[in-house]
Amino acid sequence: MSLIDRVKFDSPKDEVLIWKFPSEELRIGSQVIVNQSQEAVFVRGGRVADVLGPGTHTLTTANLPLLNHLVDLPFGGETPFSAEVWFVNKTVKRDLRWGTQTPIPLIDPEYGYPISVRAYGYFGVRVLNSRLLLTEIVGSLTGINSEKVVDYFIGEIQQKISTVLASSIGSQNISIFRINASLTDLAQAIKNEICPEFSRFGIEITNFNIERVSIPETEIAKFQEVLGSRMEIDQISKSKVGTAYTTKRTFDTLEKAAENESGGVGALLAGGVGLGAGLGAGAPLGQKLGQILNIDPSIDITNDPIAKLNMLKRLLDAHLIASEEYENRRKTILDAI
Question: Between 314 and 288, where is the model more confident?
Answer without folding.
Answer: 314
